[in-house]
Design the sequence.
């Protein structure tokens, strides 16, 4: 039940009366704003399955019912998308969770961005080339029907990496952006298997210092072609670009992100802090429309997923074959021909409070930035809390959700009662537990990665 938590949001100055029925230009955003101030908007996205809430909000009329005329515009890569939001060419975007966090702490381009809504849980996988798969598959534990036992540890890559080293070749894998979930998931998986994915230093913005495995940036839609060309031996990316490798028979997904961290947070909806302050009614309307789309995507055990696949397959959205998108979005996941498994939680958009922007999720990303040197100096726990609260805005989410509860669009128990932190989380491939209230204690648990008092230079890791 929302109860006292929503009441506290209203008492904090975010409240008001019940919203009126949607109309073209006088939608009421009782909790955080009034009428829509800016009805014509342009939102950016990357061609990935998890942009679905934006496409559904557009195609099912949820934006229009909130008085919003929204154009959805695909972007060439994550840097272009980020710059578009910062520069005002885009009013908001489907964004990597790490991007607004990194911008706020000044890693890369400095800007004040917020994330008032999380778009989804899970949705990524790590794919390896056929050459690598052939080198490891014979050593995998098998089930009674002959299929590999999952999750597969990155430890199976250790002899492969050593083989490449003996040949004088780097073992290179792709990820989509330096502050992407994919970068941190790939690094987490490799480190859990005893392989160092490298550190970032002021002189090494690629993050390859001391690396056993070299990681490079490739835009998501280009991943299969880059793998096929032999430039990389594997990659971590969102769908449908792992299933595209399966369909093309050029690679095999070896592990999903849900197997690395069960029900991990993925993308966010992000916009500038000053946009939300200047246009509170518009921000509320955007959030309501996206929450409705998330609910539609997860309704009745996924009954709408087939329709969603057809929408996403359109060239102006993801533009991949419907069969490729469906291979992961309809409750199944294909690892290789003949190995399709049930995966009802591979994409979660609304269930399990997927839309709520938890502070502890933001703090996890900050811990990984520190672990790999993107945050070069130590900070106390309070610093992590402060950065998370500057970016993640559950107050805005709750205010919009409250209106939907009042209208009967969603149920009160669809909204969590929380102080913004999840409880201690398990479900990680290495068995390490995570408590967002203790970021430094969490970092101390890892064998590979920077800890309190440490920094990295070209000569190695120094400090306690």
Sequence:
């Amino acid at each position: 039940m929302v109860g006292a938590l929503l009441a506290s949001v209203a008492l904090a100055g975010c409240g008001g009366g019940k919203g009126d029925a949607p109309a073209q230009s006088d939608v009421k955003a009782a909790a955080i704003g009034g009428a829509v101030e800016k009805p014509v908007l342009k939102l950016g996205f990357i061609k990935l399955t998890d942009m679905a809430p934006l496409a559904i909000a557009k195609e099912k009329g949820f934006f229009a019912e909130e008085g919003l005329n929204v154009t959805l515009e695909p972007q060439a890569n994550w840097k272009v998308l980020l710059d578009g939001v910062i520069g005002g060419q885009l009013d908001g975007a489907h964004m990597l969770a790490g991007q607004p966090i990194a911008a706020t702490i000044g890693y890369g381009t400095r800007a004040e961005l917020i994330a008032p809504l999380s778009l989804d849980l899970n949705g990524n996988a790590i794919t390896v080339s056929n050459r690598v798969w052939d080198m490891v598959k014979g050593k995998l534990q098998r089930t009674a029907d002959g299929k590999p036992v999952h999750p597969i540890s990155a430890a199976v890559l250790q002899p492969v990496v050593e083989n490449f080293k003996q040949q004088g070749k780097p073992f290179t894998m792709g990820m989509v952006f330096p502050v992407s979930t994919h970068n941190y998931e790939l690094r987490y998986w490799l480190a859990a298997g005893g392989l160092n994915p490298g550190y970032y230093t002021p002189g090494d913005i690629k993050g390859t210092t001391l690396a056993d495995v070299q990681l490079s940036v490739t835009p998501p839609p280009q991943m299969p072609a880059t793998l096929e060309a032999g430039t990389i031996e594997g990659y971590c990316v969102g769908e449908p670009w792992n299933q595209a490798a399966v369909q093309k028979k050029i690679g095999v997904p070896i592990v999903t992100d849900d197997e690395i961290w069960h029900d991990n947070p993925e993308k966010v909806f992000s916009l500038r802090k000053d946009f939300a302050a200047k246009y509170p009614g518009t921000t509320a309307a955007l959030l309501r429309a996206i929450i409705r789309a998330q609910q539609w995507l997860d309704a009745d055990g996924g009954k709408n997923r087939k329709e969603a696949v057809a929408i996403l397959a359109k060239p102006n959205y993801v533009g991949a074959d419907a069969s490729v998108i469906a291979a992961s979005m309809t409750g199944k996941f294909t690892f290789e021909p003949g190995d399709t498994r049930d995966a009802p939680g591979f994409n979660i958009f609304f269930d399990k409070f997927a839309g709520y922007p938890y502070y502890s999720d933001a703090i996890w990303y900050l811990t990984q930035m520190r672990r790999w040197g993107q945050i070069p100096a130590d900070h106390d726990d309070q610093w992590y809390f402060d950065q998370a609260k500057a970016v993640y805005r559950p107050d805005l989410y709750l205010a919009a959700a409250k209106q939907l509860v009042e209208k009967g669009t969603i149920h009160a128990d669809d909204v969590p009662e929380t102080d913004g932190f999840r409880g201690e989380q398990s479900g990680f491939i290495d068995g390490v537990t995570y408590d967002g209230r203790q970021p430094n204690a969490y970092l101390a648990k890892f064998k590979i990665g920077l800890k309190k008092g440490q920094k990295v230079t070209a000569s190695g890791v120094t400090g306690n």
